[in-house]
């Protein structure tokens, strides 16, 4: 049985468990584990569905495990997909919400970008496109994770063709990749910032692989100095890259007007630039190779014996044309969270590959990926309190 249980609460003790203890009536003793709900394949499947009929079919395609004689078992074989679709009949409908400035926004779906596709639902994006001249959507984490999956998985499946790309950068993150320590990111450090431009360069190049000259949005922090801002603005200008400060955290929409104008300009200048990195009919090894070498900057890709056997097994199931959804750390361009900035001459090591047939992709796992978060040593709960009048404090 490959299907894991899920729970919508952080609990590191549930990452690896043993179930079925206590006698035959309690099931068969076996090793198990829990994922956080957002990491469930059901979430990824919901986000890839075009409509309720498609969702039901995809839920039926979810791979559960295999019998003792090697026969693959899917959710449809357990006659579970009808009930699953019934439970999701309202969840498939996008949520229209109002922002603080009374503008409309659609919130729908939330798969993690380090282990799933990291984008909202296809339905929500198409709904937005039917209601507005411009739709802005986010792909989780950086260009080699969320953006790659948005393009190669979501856009290819949904028939979407984006017109512009925005890379969200912060001076703090660039200084961190440039060698500054986490506790010192608020201090001015022109040298670390300049060193971190190598990281920004790679993300810009990654977007150019898909046919776009991206807009760089600098999310402004109160600790950013005018000299640091001028340096990154000058650097982007020298590379011919549109760049603007995004001060919307402090000023709301007014703080993002310059950025919005550049995005409109970029979208009008490139209406049909989008080119996927790979085609679905390419072999899995070719797709993984392109992602690792062209987007991550890897020199080689190595597969464990288990990963090789899993690829062969998927192909024997006539599942050779699925997309590839890489699972790796979001803290580095590589699969090693300790390699900062723009690492080179590294090897991406695929230790195992999971099948998410319902969502329509395989998941090669590189490095150690946590699918069940744990609470920090000092959880937020310690700051929350309530007084005798029912007033709650410490939530924000």
Please provide a written account of the structure.
The protein is α/β, with parallel strands linked by helices and about 400 residues long. Among the domains are: about 5-85, Domain 2, N(10)-formyltetrahydrofolate synthetase (2-Layer Sandwich); about 165-265, no CATH class; about 285-365, Formyltetrahydrofolate synthetase, domain 3, CATH 3.10.410. About 35% of the residues lie in helices and about 15% in strands. The strands form 7 sheets. A 4-stranded mixed sheet has the order 12-14-15-13, sandwiched between helices. The chain has a 3-stranded parallel sheet with strand order 9-10-11, with helices on both faces. A two-stranded parallel sheet has the order 1-4. The model has no long low-confidence stretch (mean pLDDT about 95).
Quick rundown:
This protein is α/β, with parallel strands linked by helices and 396 residues long. It has helices spanning 41-48, 52-60, 81-87, 122-131, 143-158, 171-177, 190-195, 197-209, 226-238, 248-251, 257-269, 284-296, 305-316, and strands spanning 5-7, 17-19, 30-32, 34-36, 63-66, 72-74, 95-98, 104-107, 166-169, 215-219, 243-246, 300-303, 323-324, 347-356, 361-366, 385-386, 392-393. The chain has 13 helices and 17 strands.
């Amino acid at each position: 049985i490959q299907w894991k249980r899920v729970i919508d609460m952080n609990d590191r003790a549930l990452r690896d468990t043993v179930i079925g203890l206590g006698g035959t009536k309690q099931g068969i003793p076996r090793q198990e584990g829990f994922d956080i709900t957002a990491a469930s394949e059901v979430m990824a499947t919901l986000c890839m569905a075009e409509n309720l009929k498609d969702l039901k079919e995809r839920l039926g395609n979810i791979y559960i495990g295999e019998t003792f004689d090697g026969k693959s078992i899917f959710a449809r074989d357990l006659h579970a997909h009808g009930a699953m679709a019934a439970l999701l009949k309202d969840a498939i409908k996008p949520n229209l919400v109002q922002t603080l400035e009374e503008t409309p926004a659609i919130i729908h779906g939330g798969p993690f970008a380090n282990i799933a596709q990291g984008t909202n639902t296809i339905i929500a994006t198409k709904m937005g496109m039917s209601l507005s001249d411009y739709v802005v959507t986010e792909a989780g984490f950086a260009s080699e994770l969320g953006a790659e999956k948005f393009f190669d998985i979501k856009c290819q499946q949904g028939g979407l063709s984006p017109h512009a790309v925005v890379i969200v950068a912060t001076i703090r993150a660039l200084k961190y990749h440039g060698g500054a320590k986490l506790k010192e990111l608020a201090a001015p450090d022109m040298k670390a910032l300049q060193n971190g431009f190598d990281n920004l360069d790679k993300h810009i190049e990654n977007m150019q692989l898909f046919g776009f000259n991206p807009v760089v949005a600098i999310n402004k922090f109160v600790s950013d100095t005018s000299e640091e801002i001028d340096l990154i603005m000058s650097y982007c200008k020298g590379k011919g890259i549109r760049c603007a400060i995004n001060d919307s955290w402090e000023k709301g929409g007014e703080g993002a007007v310059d950025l919005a104008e550049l995005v409109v300009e970029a979208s009008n200048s490139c209406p049909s630039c989008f080119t996927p990195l790979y085609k679905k009919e390419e072999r899995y090894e070719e797709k993984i190779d392109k992602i690792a070498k062209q987007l991550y900057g890897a020199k080689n890709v190595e597969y464990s014996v288990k990963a090789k056997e899993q690829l062969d097994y998927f192909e024997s199931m006539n599942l050779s044309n699925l997309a590839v959804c890489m699972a790796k750390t979001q803290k580095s361009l590589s699969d090693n969270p300790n390699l900062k900035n723009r690492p080179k001459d590294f090897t991406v090591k695929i230790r195992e590959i999971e099948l998410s047939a319902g969502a329509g992709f395989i998941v090669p796992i590189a490095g150690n990926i946590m699918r069940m978060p744990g609470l920090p040593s000092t959880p937020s709960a310690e700051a929350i309190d309530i007084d005798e009048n029912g007033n709650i404090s410490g939530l924000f």
